[in-house]
Amino acid sequence: MSTPDFRDIWVYLSTSPLLGLTLTLLAYQIAHALYLKLGSHPLANPVALAVALIVAILTFTGTPYAVYFEGAQFVHFLLGPATVALAVPLYAQWPRLKKLFGASMLALAAGSVASVISVWYIAQALGAQRQTLLSLAPKSVTTPIAMGISEKIGGLPSFTAVLVILTGVTGAIIAPSLLRASGIRDDAIQGFAIGMCAHGIGTARAFQLSETAGAFSALAMGLNGVVTSIVVPIAVNWLG
Amino acid sequence: MLASITALLLFQLAGEVLVQWFGLPVPGPVLGMLLLFIVLIVRGGAPAALRDTANTLLQHLSLLFVPAGVGVMTHLGLFATEWLPTTVAILLSTAITVLVTAGVMRMGAGR
């Protein structure tokens, strides 16, 4: 009787969701430990580190994304209930929110339009293809909304998902220091601005600043999803 | 814990059903968040168990974006040709968005 060699075990495991799920949790915890070890330096963003680690491992073992996603989908699924759960910290800010309602609505409209128009013109000036422009336009909103918008206007939804994550990581890295440098100290405004530019990944970062910043970031993320899904088709029509 | 997870899923489900029914341009979970928010206002507070579950889920919010992020490997070819316009546009546009939003909100709040 022969003992199975490593390759047989690998082939067996690669057909079950266990590997993809375990890899996701392990890579994230390694990334998060590294992030803490580097003194929570914004450049050591845990999402970016974990993604890089997993992509390296999948490429090295020749594992296709679809196989990995069989397992990772269980983590991905939790985005839904986590989004609903954002209502809880949001409710905790209700008194503050009522006071800032008018200002929030103005900032929402201005931020959404600024995001779509600026990304379009800058990418166009740098020679991006039209399909890339269409995939970039909804970059600042949460993944499922952005993918839906991208599909509607003729972009590549799966490419949009990647650009959205890249935007989130970028916002989580630069937004807090940019806000501090421009003298914006109110954590409700900080949170709202972070959520407008960097959706859920920014919201995760905003919760590290304060509970208030996190709640306002969640609010901006939700509202921006709705407004951007209206703004993008109109803007694309107008931008040509 | 079990009851509050079920509640979150039920609100998500209600959101999904309403979105499909009325053909709304919002994802189900975002509408679910709005519905739960309204219920919390009407109810005048969140039960402690729901607060605990929400905190646990949101503590690891970043983790939940990892599977979609790994999708970058399926677009390495497109990214190889378009990396310059996309990364520069994302970097600058993100900075513009955050400053415009914060600036307008500060003016609007009068501080």
Q: Structurally, how many domains make up the residues of chain B?
A: 2
The largest chain-to-chain contact, stated as pair and per-chain residue counts, equals: A-B, 108 and 77 residues
Note the overall shape of chain B. Answer: extended
Structurally, the number of domains of chain A stands at: 2
Question: What is the averaged pLDDT score of chain B?
Answer: 91
Q: How many DSSP H or I helices of chain B? A: 5
Percent helix of chain B, as a range, is over 70%
Strand content of chain B: under 5%
Task: Provide an overview of this structure.
The complex is a heterodimer of chains A (240) and B (111). Chain A is an all-alpha fold and 240 residues long. Chain A folds into two domains: 6-77, no CATH class; 85-239, no CATH class. Chain A is 82% helix and 0% strand. Chain A has 13 helices and no strands. In chain A, helix 11 crosses helix 12 (187-209) and helix 12 crosses helix 13. Chain B is an all-alpha fold and 111 residues long. Chain B has five helices and no strands. Chain B is extended and about 50 Å long. At the A-B interface, helix 2, helix 3, helix 4, helix 5 and helix 6 of A face helix 1, helix 2, helix 3, helix 4 and helix 5 of B.
Supply database-style keywords.
heterodimer; A: 240 residues; mainly alpha; 2 domains; 13 helices; B: 111 residues; 5 helices
